[in-house]
Amino acid sequence: MLSAKIHSILFKNKKTLPILLMFLFPVLFFSTRIPGIKNDIINPDSSLWHYRSEQFIVGIKNKQFEKTYQHYQPGTTLMWITGSAVEIFKKITGINSYDIENFQNFDLVSKISVISVQFVLSTIIILVLAKIIGFYQSFFTVSLFTFEPFFLANSRLYHMDVLLTLLLTLSIILGFLNMKEPKIWKSIIIGLLLGFSFLTKSISIGALLFVLFYTLIFFIHNEQKGKIIPILGLMLISFILTVFIFLPALWVKPLFYLSDIFSEVVRVGIKKGHDQILFGEPTSRAGLIFYPLVTLLKVSPFILVGLLFCFYYSFNFIKNIFKTFKKVNLAFFTFSIYFAIFSFGYIFAMSLPAKKVDRYILVIYPFLAYLAYIGFQRVYQNIKVGFKKKIFIVFLVIMSIFFWIFPIFKLYPWYFTYTSPLFGSPQKANIILAQKPFGVAIPLLKDTVVEKYYEGNKEDLPKLGFYDTQPMRAVYPNSKIFDVRVYGPSTYDILILGINEEMPEKILSNGEYSFEKIHSIWINGLEYWRIYNKITLSENNNGK
């Protein structure tokens, strides 16, 4: 009786279920992102962005506008969000400077501020995408990528890739709606969002060109040439104003800083490679295979199964489209083709530069989720028998349990180490594409060192040798951390190697000291950190 009443309330009142889902979304969103973020990862870039954000706010407060340009990416959106949040935190607590004692508090505030903005953008995407495909379909699509383990992992970082993904996705969706029903306010908002995207990462200039070009073709094709100048002009003006208003360094030297952004993109982002270990071989130029491989490794089987369904049902559709030129024209202006061209264009553009990083693939997660939704929808529509439809829904629930819920509980809070079970164990996946330390479990590593080697005074803390010193410097005295590529083994007492890091050449070629492994930190079945104690060879030989 009670279940019948609940069913009646939820499904007879068409407005009730969407409202309940929109209340459920933030609960699931924040419950998967907030717990454990203070102690999970201090990624190498985060300490740099903390400093940049602080200098950004200093520049604003003291009208030293040159300080608002900190990096070529340029990360301005991130600095506005987290710099403002940290400034408020400073006013409330009276803590005014970073040090190893309070860094994690500042880091927590910054992460929560970014996650909160991500939530707002994700919610808006649900509501805006619903205008194209319907509310339930939109909610399902956004949920598909929002709770993907690797996407979830990156959304918990103090970084820009998820923020960029959501800004671009919202820009693209609104761009499509504005083609179909052009409005002045839509054009202004699209320019604003594309401006924030560019201020997050300069690669987003391609999204501006895409939206402008696609809208231009649409208006020409539909003989709406009178709308070209006002609609495209407003988008472009809004974009330019957003960039100039929110990056005050441009108020001082616009040409200098803009030219530096693009020249550094070419130098660092395109020409300079990024170290990877692919199939056991070190390389700085991973090649065209990199992003397809990352897709298989980092996207859950839940979405991949949906993609297979989508491709199966789309094959005949695509084949029939190309039978006549008229059908090609009609298909070109559907949302699916529009979204596909942007996403494939992004992956193609990111595949050409030498620098390749696995998290750069996050931008196409919304498109992959959209295709998966189409695949599942096609299967459901083609099932004629009622009870088989229910079996299919149960199948989706089981997949979500195995490929979402189970990894979320099993990997907590180390979601960044996620690899698809299609490749078997994490160890096997690590052979195909090697994991990087990336500051995973740095607080735990620091606590382990202090617990085992701390003797009561800060002066007694051991000197540590690292490859990437940046994450540990945030929570451990700088004077006691040394880069093993620069300093020899006589400088430090303990050597710490991250996953897939080799013994330094300076130790291998040294005849005075050796290092003995005394402890390991295992995460997701991987030996993520190895701790070595220094042994003086002469003393060791005398002992023998």
Overview of the molecule:
The protein has 544 residues and is an alpha/beta fold. It folds into three domains: 1-31, no CATH class; 32-411, no CATH class; 442-543, no CATH class. It is 63% helix and 7% strand. It is built from 24 helices and seven strands. It has helices at 2-12, 16-31, 44-61, 76-93, 103-133, 135-146, 149-155, 161-180, 184-200, 205-221, 228-246, 249-252, 254-271, 290-298, 301-321, 325-332, 335-351, 365-382, 386-411, 426-432, 442-453, 470-473, 505-508, 537-543; strands spanning 276-278, 281-283, 464-466, 481-483, 494-498, 513-523, 526-536. A five-stranded mixed sheet has the order 4-3-5-7-6. The chain has a two-stranded antiparallel sheet with strand order 1-2. Helix 2 runs antiparallel to helix 5 (103-133) and helix 10 packs antiparallel against helix 11 (228-246). The longest helix is centred in the N-terminal third of the chain and has 31 residues, at 103-133. The protein is globular. It starts with a helix and ends with a helix. Residues 1-7 have low confidence and may be disordered.
Q: Could you give a quick summary of the protein structure above?
A:
The protein is of the alpha/beta class and 544 residues long.
Task: Explain the layout of strands and helices.
Elements: H1 2-12, H2 16-31, H3 44-61, H4 76-93, H5 103-133, H6 135-146, H7 149-155, H8 161-180, H9 184-200, H10 205-221, H11 228-246, H12 249-252, H13 254-271, E1 276-278, E2 281-283, H14 290-298, H15 301-321, H16 325-332, H17 335-351, H18 365-382, H19 386-411, H20 426-432, H21 442-453, E3 464-466, H22 470-473, E4 481-483, E5 494-498, H23 505-508, E6 513-523, E7 526-536, H24 537-543
Parallel strand pairs: 3-4, 3-5
Antiparallel strand pairs: 1-2, 5-7, 6-7
Helix pairs in contact: 2-5, 2-6, 3-4, 4-5, 5-6, 5-8, 6-18, 8-9, 8-10, 9-11, 10-11, 15-18
